[in-house]
Amino acid sequence: MSTLTLAPMLTRGRLKSRAGDGWLDVLAVVSNALSAAVALTVAGGVWMFYSWWQNPTPRVLERLTALWGPTADDRMIYFVLALVALGLLVVPVFSLGASAAKLGAQGRSERLASLRLVGLTSSQTVGLATLETLVQWALGAVVGLVAYFATLPLWAGVTFAALTIDPAEMLLPAWLLAAVLAALLAITLASSVLGLQRVRISPLGVTRRQTPRALKAWRVLLLAAVVVAFFGYAAIGGSRNINGVAAVAGFLAITIGSISLAVPFLIQLLALPLTRTRRASLLLAARRILDDPRATWRSISAITLLCFVAGFTSVMSISGEDPQLIIMQDLRTGVLITVAIGFGVAAMATLMNQASLVFDNAAQTLALSQMGFPKPVFTRVRVLQSFVPLLLASVIFAALGRALGVVTSSSQFAQYHSSDQLLQLVAILAAGLALCLLALAVCSPLERHVLAAQGRAND
Amino acid sequence: MNKNATAPLAGRGLTKNFGQVAALRGVDIDIAAGQSVAIMGPSGSGKSTLLHCLAGIIAPTSGQVTLGDQVISSLSDAKRSRIRLTHFGFVFQDGQLVPELPARENVAVPLLLAGVPRGQALSTADTWLERLGVGTERNRRPGEMSGGQLQRVAIARALAGGPDVVFADEPTGALDQATGHEVMQILSTTAQMSGATLVVVTHDPLVAGWCDRLVEIRDGVIHADTVTNQPRPRPVQDALTGGELR
């Protein structure tokens, strides 16, 4: 029997399976669809602003010339900002596609191993996995493509430079559309192979079975050194020399890099005392966080950074005809859109990762449930383990961003600060976090379904 | 909780259907407090289903399960969970310890869920780990222990709450014969010492030999029910020292 005939047969069987394996396929397709739709939409936005810079329509040219001047360089600012937004979203979006592929690979690993045992060659197994990944990706890409086109008209309600967006400007040329999809496909295939390897290396999934080494304090000391160096440099007037894209990018890279090193240590520092709790769910969650604080940070870092930027720009809500005021308003609009997309992606990633854990830990959860652990304990562990760090980090970094925004805002804008902007920030954070909580809530019925399916004793 | 096991366990007219499949067909069983019972039978005979019904993990399609005077089979899922947590202990084939928790916390977690204060739960856990010869492993995680040590920790977890009944589902299935023999010896002797009833599902006649009574089940009905009197091959304390466990 060839791989081409075996793959659809096995997929059909899995979708009908009582064990809920079909959920993994459905989730993988939905994630692929979301990552494709978001990637195409973001690329569409970048393309639109590239066109504003290089090839503006008469109405855009007229408006931008009136605001900033007649040359192309005068119009470049929106393209640069769009690239920044792209930079903030590219990792979580591609990670989502990668997670989908890994999840699919995990779902298939046991079956593929069984097929190896009954005589399929290694290359046939890899071929089967690749084919199934391709089919899942293709289904997701088609849905994502439809969603991209279907949602384009919605952007007509958004304004930049006091111009409403013309959705046609966000329409990607065929070559760029193909390039975005090709990039997604490449990452999906690579992740699928890595996902299978991970399962092969560690059939027990993501959980490490040995006591992890504690992270060391040098991580925080490094961040402190970077902060001291920055303020020292600024104090001697050196910050005036930080000009140009490369210098700013270098500064940002050092800052984000040192934060990314320090925060896992801080997460460990916060989680450790929680292991002295008398609440079993908190103990389990704290131990799981301590198992790999870097993984906890990885799962929240992108959204945390977005929250910081959203907090920073929340002091910039200004209306008026002054070009400086318009660009600030646009910056804030762009950030809010980026944060909204970021939370959508984060919610889907949360669902993917937690659903994956539900399947990985099914035997363990079933045993604990049989011992009498109340089912709400498992939900509480999930919330404490994945949502509480997200909640804390989002709120803390948004507050830090806003504080920095307030401190660094020039006095001429101070009069425009109002509680309305704070409310808007709070509202988008609350909505985004609620979406992530909803994604977690979906895992509880999935877990019950998986446990019920596994509950039939093998007599 | 166990107060030296005064609660007999009984099943009356137990049937359990999974769709069209009848896994149990009118099983009657009485297990005296403190007794150790092995349930044997071929694959698909209904032995694990019987254990799950008796333990309140699943509700029978008809019939009832009682622990002492309390009918547990008709309780809600949440109440049956509470009964399992506070009155029963469980030992699984592959231990099923939580991989992220050190041994002492693995033993203490069910106690915490049952409402025991943290200090007392950890102290009880340490006592049981010492008693079972794995006290030095208390801060190790499951990945750092051998199969025999894992099952000792699992037995400590099952007994630390002072259960009326300990249910063991193929407790030696993942171990080599010698280690399995040791683990079964520890399980039966510690259960006996703490006054708990022991119900073991097994394929292995040597494992069943450690129990006072052997119930054989076939096609969902009890085929044979015999009292055995196997001599204990080694002194209890010898088994608890852990010296020969791998």
Question: Could you give a short description of this structure?
Answer:
Chain A has 459 residues and is an all-alpha fold. Chain A has 15 helices and two strands.
Largest interface: A-B, 35 and 46 residues
Structural class of chain A: mainly alpha
What count of helical segments of chain B does DSSP give? 8
* Contiguous runs where pLDDT drops below 50 for at least 5 residues of chain A: 199-208
Structural class of chain B: alpha/beta
Main sheet of chain B? 6 strands, mixed
Overall geometric form of chain A: globular
> What is the overall pLDDT average of chain B?
88
Name the strands of the widest sheet of chain A in spatial order: 1-2
Strand order of the largest sheet of chain B: 6-7-8-3-9-10
Domains of chain A, number? 2
What gyration radius of chain B follows from the Cα positions, in whole Å?
17 Å
**Biggest β-sheet strands, sense, barrel of chain A:** 2 strands, antiparallel
How would you describe what is shown here?
The complex is a heterodimer of chains A (459) and B (246). With 459 residues, chain A is mainly alpha-helical. Chain A has two domains: 1-203, no CATH class; 265-459, no CATH class. Helices cover 79% and strands 1% of the residues of chain A. Chain A has 15 helices and two strands. Chain A has a two-stranded antiparallel ribbon. Chain B has 246 residues and is of the alpha/beta class. Chain B has one domain (9-240): Rossmann fold (3-Layer(aba) Sandwich), CATH 3.40.50.300. Chain B contains eight helices and ten strands. Chain B has helices at residues 47-54, 77-87, 103-113, 118-131, 147-160, 177-193, 205-208, 236-240, and strands at 9-18, 21-31, 36-40, 62-67, 70-71, 88-91, 165-169, 197-201, 213-218, 221-227. In chain B, the strands form two sheets. Chain B has a six-stranded mixed sheet with strand order 6-7-8-3-9-10, with helices on both faces. A four-stranded antiparallel sheet of chain B has the order 2-1-4-5, with helices on one face. Chain B is globular. In chain B, 54% of the residues are buried. The chains are: A mainly alpha (459), B alpha/beta (246). Chain A binds chain B through residues 204, 207-211, 275-280, 283-284, 287-288, 290-291, 363-364, 367-375, 377, 455-459, and chain B through 18, 23, 41, 43-49, 51-52, 55, 57-58, 77-78, 81-86, 88-90, 92, 96, 98-102, 105, 109-110, 112-113, 117-118, 121, 140-144.
